[in-house]
Amino acid sequence: EAQVTQNPRYLITVTGKKLTVTCSQNMNHEYMSWYRQDPGLGLRQIYYSMNVEVTDKGDVPEGYKVSRKEKRNFPLILESPSPNQTSLYFCASSLSEGRNNEQFFGPGTRLTVL
Amino acid sequence: ILNVEQSPQSLHVQEGDSTNFTCSFPSSNFYALHWYRWETAKSPEALFVMTLNGDEKKKGRISATLNTKEGYSYLYIKGSQPEDSATYLCATPHNAGNMLTFGGGTRLMVKP
How far is it, in rounded angstroms, from Cα A15 to Cα B49? Predict the structure, then answer.
């Protein structure tokens, strides 16, 4: 089944404790992206990647890192999480350029930073 | 930051009503306009990606139109059903690049 998977689905952590949210897609998509969703602010793009070893900042990259060492994986890293990073996070992928190809979204990761 | 606005923010309709809502975006450097449907507790799912001025797309009872010169898109739902209840999101790329900006969404609730 074609899908985007994220792990974990739910995470409660404490300020400053490094964490990684994994994202994997099995559709051989070139473009992958991370979004956060906050009430009243909608979906905001954190980082995106056009292909292996190519990543770019989105609207809200501060406090996050990403890597794209393999085509299928695009982990989101929070080196020192803070409470303002409490949010619902979505990973997405698309066939090639994100601008004119539909995005396939993962199931979401709900993160709480205490 | 690109300004993508959706209206109304929320909408309550009765089953069987037809409805429509709007996505407004800057008309300069337009490249594409995406529509997604997002049900509660699920992930957003793509409805349409539109690129040409005057484009009309249809999927079942849902259709969308695009006016790139004036910077808006309409999403129409004919004969709304309770299962249409969801948040409908539009998105467009910054300056024809690959960073997508989403609107705040229109939350549709269809009463049986």
Answer: 39
Helix (H, G, I), strand (E, B) or coil at B100: strand
- Interface residues of A toward B, Cβ cutoff 8 Å, are 31, 33, 35, 40-45, 48, 50, 56, 58-59, 90, 97-108
* CB < 8 Å from A in window 8-47 of B: 31-32, 34, 36, 42-46
Q: How many CB pairs under 8 A join A and B?
A: 64
pLDDT in tens, chain B (112 residues): 678 999 999 999 999 999 999 999 998 888 899 999 999 889 999 999 999 999 999 999 999 999 999 999 999 999 999 999 999 999 998 765 778 899 999 999 999 9
Instruction: Give the number of other CB atoms < 10 A from CB of residue B74.
Output: 14
Across the interface, whether the CB atoms of A100 and B51 are under 8 A apart is answered yes
Q: Check: CB of residue B75 under 8 Å from CB of residue B21.
A: yes
Work out the number of other CB atoms within 10 angstroms of the CB of residue A114: 10
Residue type at B36 in one-letter notation: Y
Long-range contacts of the stretch B43-46 (C-beta < 8 A, 24+): B43/A90, B43/A105, B43/A106, B43/A107, B43/A108, B44/A43, B44/A90, B44/A103, B44/A105, B44/B89, B45/A105, B46/A102, B46/A103, B46/A104
